[in-house]
Design brief:
The chain is an alpha+beta fold. The chain is built from 14 helices and 14 strands.
Length: 583
């Protein structure tokens, strides 16, 4: 059955095979975003007035007209907001970024410095271009702008009203912190330093970047941040200082009125800024008490060009679909994350980690003191090593129970020929089809498919539902809670006194299906000789699902403890694994 005619026409509006000649739409600017939200509300009103295919055709006709009038990027963004949030639009497939704008995902193919060069050498950022320029990564960042617009999205039932999802900025912050953790781990594989926050607004920026994409301005190394008309560097620094002082003291000022920061979202909404900013009606104003700090910083960076470049073009930071390609994106967001983390460290008590559910996880099988990070209850298998796994009717749960449960329950991982303590990645070539029908190839990091088999014992005489959380950290970063990467989180019901073997394919990862993280980037690169990681399983009561994103690493550890000390808890186990990058 062929798709409805409206789908093809809407798809054509979303797809922009060539860069626009007109000034770019920037959803980071409140005024630009407001226009797009008004258009999305208009689309919702059309769908409500004429449900079904006729309404979608009316929206397609209106969107085509707006695009012809020179508002193609704004219209496409508004259309995606409609498709993401209105019931009539959710069945319309949205093509991935490489189909919507193939000219925005091509590899820059910048020349690399020698691998033996010092990690701090200018130009070494090229080593991780494959990560920053990944089409799936930038598609995720672009999609977040659509799913969670800073000003909220129109209410499908009443388009003139805005809906701001609960905990929106918390989720937004958590997604960016996870991105930074993964980026720093990629850098570690090359011996590079962690991302330095962009906190000095007058220092030269050594990270030049030329995307070599049509329509975007390159930025040479050594330029410094420049102000914008009506908004200079001193204005931006003033708002930085106010926000950091507020994060430390717990107070932001609205005129002469002190406002208590009682939760993270107040600070995050004010720094971004959103209608929930403590600046109130001035939330859109860059020169408001705290301004649009997050957004304006990125806008200023997008406007950095060579001194003699008078083209007026923006750098890739001006477009959410390409912003993640630029090294400065990560430096800027590290700076913003430092702001939020400073409030958490100053004003949030550590989590109470004593409420372990009644489950048994083993640190070690054997007598005497157990060696750290050797839990027998975390088992990994490559899918290719699991007999029959390629069959359509393969039952991984049943196979796992027969292989690792029952009489095999007390056997350690080395007893199983199918288990592994190493995972593998490689850099493949991904084909991107261009408008003229030819193909271009871009590097893509992928991992060999694998599955977890997790052994958990319920000590109760009744069934008990728990949440299983899996985290990964490079051994070198294990003491830094901000660099633990969330791999998966899922709910499982344990039977009475059950010794459960839980089968969980890596492709079902919650960070892929809930955060939108690209599935092929689930694992960090690792090294050719192998890179040591710690894989952690934490089992919690499902009541914790209502708590903050990033649990338990979003807060400081209890006094005198480090993240690695979580291992002492009965509901936490870890295992050393190695990730090998196959050249």
């Amino acid at each position: 059955m062929s798709p409805p005619a409206s789908h093809a026409r809407l798809r054509a509006v979303l797809c922009q095979p060539e860069p626009p000649a007109a000034p770019r739409f920037q959803p980071a600017l409140p005024a630009h975003l407001e226009r797009a939200l008004d258009v999305a509300a208009h689309f919702m009103a059309l769908a409500n007035a004429t449900p079904g295919e006729a309404g979608l055709l009316a929206i397609a006709e209106d969107a085509e007209r707006r695009a012809r009038e020179g508002h193609a990027e704004e219209t496409a963004h508004a259309l995606r907001i409609f498709l993401a949030h209105h019931p009539e639009g959710r069945d319309v497939p949205v093509p991935p970024l490489e189909e919507r704008a193939p000219h925005q995902v091509l590899s820059s193919r910048r020349p690399e410095p020698p691998r033996k060069a010092p990690p701090g050498l200018p130009g070494a950022e090229v080593w991780v271009d494959y990560f920053r320029e990944d089409a799936g990564l930038n598609d995720m960042l672009d999609t977040w702008r659509v799913r969670f617009p800073a000003a909220g999205h129109p209410d499908p039932a009443e388009p003139s009203r805005r809906v701001r999802p609960a905990r929106r900025t918390e989720r937004y912050w958590h997604a960016h912190r996870q991105l930074l953790a993964r980026y720093d781990t990629e850098r570690l594989a090359f011996g590079m330093h962690r991302v330095a926050p962009l906190q000095d607004y007058t220092a030269p920026l050594n990270e030049g970047y030329d995307s070599r994409l049509p329509g975007f301005a390159p930025r040479p190394p050594g330029v410094s941040l420049q102000g914008l008309p009506g908004y200079d560097i001193a204005d931006h620094a003033t708002r930085r200082d106010r926000l950091f002082a507020g994060a430390s003291s717990g107070l932001l000022w609205h005129g002469d009125t002190p406002l208590d920061l009682e939760h993270l979202e107040q600070l995050a909404d004010t720094a971004e800024s959103t209608p929930d900013s403590l600046d109130g009606e001035a939330w859109r104003e860059p020169l408001g008490p705290h301004g649009a700090f997050h957004h304006m910083g990125q806008v200023m960076l997008a406007n950095l060009r060579a001194p003699r470049d008078t083209s007026g073009r923006l750098g890739v930071l001006g477009n959410p679909a390409t912003a993640g390609r630029d090294p400065l994106f990560y430096r800027w967001h590290r700076h913003v994350d430092d702001l939020l983390d400073s409030w958490q460290c100053s004003h949030l008590l550590p989590h109470d980690l004593s409420d372990a559910p009644p489950v048994l996880l083993r640190k070690w099988i054997g007598e005497g003191p157990y060696p750290a990070h050797q839990s027998p209850d975390i088992l990994l298998c490559f899918e290719k090593d699991m007999p029959g796994a390629d069959a359509p009717d393969f039952d991984g749960q049943r196979w796992g129970e027969a292989t690792f449960g029952g009489e095999h329950w007390d056997k350690p991982p080395p007893s199983f020929f199918v288990s592994t303590h190493t995972l593998r990645t490689h850099l493949g070539q991904h084909a991107v089809r261009l408008p003229d029908g030819t193909e271009a190839f871009t590097p893509r990091l992928v991992h060999e498919p694998f599955a977890y088999f997790l052994r958990v014992e319920n000590t109760l005489e009744r069934a008990h539902t728990v949440t299983v959380r899996l985290h990964l950290v490079a051994d070198a970063f294990a003491d830094d809670r901000r660099l633990w990467m969330e791999l998966d989180r899922f709910v499982h019901t344990l039977g009475p006194r059950e010794r459960a073997v839980i089968h969980r394919p890596s492709r079902l990862s919650s960070v892929v299906h809930e955060l939108g993280w690209p599935a092929h980037l689930l694992l960090p690169r690792g090294r050719r000789e192998g890179m040591l990681f710690r894989l952690q399983m934490m089992v919690t009561d499902t009541a914790l699902e209502a708590r903050e994103e990033g649990y338990p690493f979003n807060r400081l550890m209890p006094r005198g403890q480090r993240p690695v000390d979580l291992l002492a808890l009965p509901h936490v186990v870890t295992r050393n694994i190695w990730i090998h990058h196959v050249e």
